[in-house]
Amino acid sequence: MHKSLSNLLILTAVISGIQTTTQCASGADRKPNILFIALDDLNDWIGCMGGHPQAITPNLDRLSQSSVFFTNAHCAAPACNPSRAAIFTGISPNQSGLYSNNQSMRTIMPEDEIIPKTLSRHGYHSSGSGKMLHYFIDAASWQEYFPAKETENPFPRTLYPETRPLSLPRGGPWQYVETDWGPLQASDQEYGGDFLVTSWISQTLERKHEKPFFLACGIYRPHEPWFVPAKYFQPFPLESIQLPPGYKADDLEDLPPAGKRRGPNRYFEHIRQHGQWKQAVQGYLASIYYADAMLGRVLDTLEASQYRDNTILILWSDHGWHLGEKQHWQKFTAWRACTRVPLMIRTPTSKPGICKQPVSLTSLFPTLLDLVSLPPEPHHDHPSLKPLIENPQAAWPHVAITHLDRPDNYSISDIRWRYIHYQDGGEELYDINNDRYEWSNLATSTDHQDILRKYRNLKPVHFEPYRMTGLQDLKKLPVLSADIAMKNSNPSGPKVTVTFLNRRRQPVSVYWVDREGKPVLYFQIESGKSKPQLTRKGATWLIKDTNDKTLGHVRVESIDAKVVVE
């Protein structure tokens, strides 16, 4: 053989061997995939948490049995926006200044990188579907999304009743328009919504991926409105519905003034006045059952896929929900019914177990980086949960802190004790071992002052001020006269905050004009007062006086703005 040809063959063989070795190494060293599943507004009403005896959640229950199941996990904030922002940035509300739903995440945190962007920098393909952030997608942070990320609208088509409200009449401008419920005569496919989200997620799991993937699945139910196909209502006959086990009629008597104000709201009273308490409980249980069924579709697809044994699965809810406990409806409180959430984590190497240590959802970002052996981000302010995933009984020197909608309002959750502190100095202390529903406030008990001092000393050392763009800096949207044709709302893009200021001597009413041109009363503003409202570009808002006379309307643009009613 010619010497040059011999050398060429030898070189080719060497290169081939190197390539083979590299390919084998890359396969062996490939980082695990991540499936990140959120359920919206889900409290402990699932079988494995025992929150309500009638809950039907077979898929959540089976996932808890194959995961490290955190039974003492708490949200960073009892509201969608600050909770999800903390999860996706790894930054607590008291550090970011993002405390409430009335703030815009990207106004408050314009440069902070979120999970999919960070993972993409490290070689992951980041995609998702459904609600992950608070009503926007943050398109630049994802490589792929459904619906299309450019729309900044995370919701696919969803079937709702033609005439609303269906079950609960509007009590006034204070009532959230989605507080309504009832069965729909529709199949899952006709309903759309989370069925379309989980279909897209399942199809993505069935594809071949050249890179490790981060796949986020946002299941919107059991968020209001509680409309789901009728088959999910059928296991819960109205005559059999049990009211929330945590409800106690005189549960406010031992609370400090701030707690008494935080508890009762107009929703619960309004719902009972209209005889809708059991119907609402039925709607919530049906929505949980529906969400669980949608979760099951994703779990089944993962189990049948090639990624079954190399995928980290994390399931969480952004916060809990009151259905009458503490005379309260909705969220926004520091009580356990609202702060405690399901959290399940399964990795390719972890063993199933139950962890009772107090953990915060703000730890999820640093945990993901730790689990896939990526460097920590220095601005993250919570510890990784990896030690507890490896050993659920490991020592854990941390507590879980939940922040309310203003600085210095927070709760501390430990293994046995829960402490609540209000901005005005009011306090609550509960022994969860003996008082699961927080019926007995021990903060004034002489026998518990040492325990009280312990949790006072765990107060966060810093509270970033509540941040919102100054009104003087906001663009002023023109109030168009009634002579100018009013367009129907066609909202798109990320949420923006529009602040309405009433400079008139009398109150004014503000209506959202829906996609069909129907005005929906949202709120009233007293003379000299202002009201911030989250909305989207392309939404139309109508303003009327106390005599129902139209004062004008405004069309929302793509930035935070103000509307001055004169």
Explain the overall architecture.
There is one protein chain. This protein is α/β, with parallel strands linked by helices and 566 residues long. The protein folds into two domains: 31-399, Alkaline Phosphatase, subunit A, CATH 3.40.720; 475-565, von Hippel-Lindau disease tumour suppressor,  beta domain (Immunoglobulin-like, Sandwich), CATH 2.60.40.780. Helices cover 25% and strands 23% of the residues. The protein has 15 helices and 25 strands. The chain has helices spanning 3-29, 58-65, 80-89, 93-96, 105-108, 115-121, 188-191, 194-206, 257-262, 266-273, 277-304, 336-339, 364-371, 386-390, 449-456, and strands at 33-39, 68-74, 125-130, 144-146, 181-184, 213-219, 226-229, 311-317, 322-323, 329-330, 340-346, 353-355, 359-360, 400-403, 410-413, 417-421, 427-431, 475-476, 492-502, 508-513, 519-525, 530-537, 540-544, 550-555, 561-565. Strands 1, 2, 3, 4, 6, 8, 11, 12 and 13 form a nine-stranded mixed sheet that branches. It has a four-stranded antiparallel sheet with strand order 14-15-16-17, covered by helices on one side. It has a four-stranded mixed sheet with strand order 18-25-19-22, with no helix packed on it. α2 packs across α11 (277-304) and α8 (194-206) runs parallel beside α11 (277-304). The longest helix has 28 residues, at 277-304. It is globular, with a radius of gyration of 25 Å. The model is unreliable at 1-26 (pLDDT under 50).
